[in-house]
Structure formats: C-alpha cells, structure tokens
Design goal:
The chain is an alpha+beta fold. It has 2 domains: 7-174, PH-domain like; 201-280, no CATH class. The chain has 10 helices and 8 strands. A 5-stranded antiparallel sheet has the order 1-2-3-4-8, with helices on both faces. Strands 5-6-7 form a 3-stranded antiparallel sheet, covered by helices on one side. A hairpin with a 2-residue loop joins strand 2 and strand 3. Helix 9 (220-246) runs antiparallel to helix 10 (251-280). It is elongated and about 80 Å long. The two termini are 37 Å apart. 32% of the residues are buried.
Length: 296
Amino acid sequence: MDIRVPQAETFGIPMNQQTAFSTPKGEFKERIKKRQLKMVEKYGAMLKQVLEPGEEVQLAMRGCSPMSILEQLTTGWIVYLMKRCTLVVTNKRILHFPSKTNFAPKHSVAQIRYGDVESIKPSALGGRKLTIKYKNGKKETFLYVNEGRKFKSILPNLRLRGEETSLFRQRHHLCPKCTAPLEPAVYTCWKCGLEFRTMKKAMLLSIFLPGGGYFYTGHPFLGMGDAIGEVLLLFFVIFSLINVLFGTADPINNLFIVIVFGALLFIEKLITIYHARHYVKEYIPVDTHFQPVRTM
C-alpha cells in the first residue's frame, strides 16, 4: 500500500513514510502518522540543518537521555522530566536531541553513528529501554522510549556494521550552528566559534549563588527549589554561629546546629555542582538566536 504524503506535510523533512507511519507489522495507521509528525514538527528547523545528503528519517521516538544512578538518587523522579529527549532514527545514524520538559528543543544535538555501534539491545518488555554498546567499550541506556517496539522491528534493517566510524567511536555532540562535531570538554565550536555554557562558570555559580548552577543550565524550577533550600540552610548556619559567638544560652547546642546545617549546606552545594556539570555536557549555546550555517 502506498502511504506517501507530500513532503510539505512532513515539513520539508525527508522521511521514509512506509517505515515511520506504520505499525511494527508494517500496517499504515493514521494515528501513528499524526504522532510521528507531531514529534518531528518541533525539530523541523534543526533536522533541516543537521541531515546529510541522502539521509532520511526512519522513525522519531521520545525518551530519557542516559543518566547515572547518582543523578537518579539525588534528583528523584523529577530527573525523568529534566532528562527528556527526542531520538530521530535515520538510515545513517540516530540523532539525539536533549529536550525541555515539554519536549521542545534545547538547541542541542548529538549523533550516534551506526559505525560506532557494537550493538543496540531494546529491553524485552516493549523495548522501553535501549542499551547501546559502542565500539570503544562504553555503554549507554535510554529509558522510557515510547516507540521501542517499532524501533525493535526496524533494527535488523539498520546498518550497524561495515561503515566507517567517527573519531569519537561513541555518541558525541554536534554544533547546532554549523553541524561540526564538538570536541569533548571544549565549549566553543572549533569551526564557527559558537559559544556554549561552560563547566567553569556552572561550577562557580553553583558555589557562590543559591541555585545558580541550575539557572545557568536552563532549569529554573530546580534552581528556585535549590535556592530556597540553600538560603534556609545558610540562615540557620549564620543564626546559630552568631549565638555561638555572642550568645550566652547553650553554646554547645548552637555549635552542634552550626555543624549539622553547615554539613547539609555543603552536601547541597556538592549535589548542585554535580548536576550542573552533567547538564553542561548537553552543550547548550549561550546565544540561542544564532543563524545556522552549513559548512560541512
């Protein structure tokens, strides 16, 4: 059955509609078409910038970016909102777009070249978890993937072997302005000069400004909660310290309060720094109003 629709309906993005708009058994469904187009629409401009000649979209998926166990423990359930992402499967690679809580783009993009992949294993129950092993030995897991069953059905058709690999041999970020591969831990594009939020500034703001690390990395709600918590802890530390130095009633008890709340404040700062360091690795541009330039 021919299910092709005009490219204008796919926002000018080349899509393999036979694959994208069908069930795992290959049956076309209008609801699947609408769902796929809804996911792709938000990333239309970025996809037009990043897609290479001859590259076409096979499937769009939503999920959660890879995260450490410590991230999950120190953030709680909200981490699954903070780490939302959109994955676009093409005939050449998987494009990873870190997303806001409503799945809107963050002007950040990474790629997983099939030549860099040793294996991709969807979980047995519905494929809601994708574990990717790279040729450099590293593993990453994407959680809560909403199109896992469909991805599992097209996985045998993806060319995971035989292609030339990138220099990185794992998932790596691209410059959203010029699409050049970004150097790890370097927060300026070597090709077009686009600047990204830096690790150093994220750490300094985390230390000296309550909630500063979260605000800097684009997480205002976490920043507000963290700022309130830090200010309260700092108040108790300062108030108890004043009582220790100038008060006359129970200085030992006040010293104990200073130590306890000071330790809690220190731990809070460490957690904020840890989170900010991870969020900075998404390579979010300082100025998101740049003009895309194709230089590749």
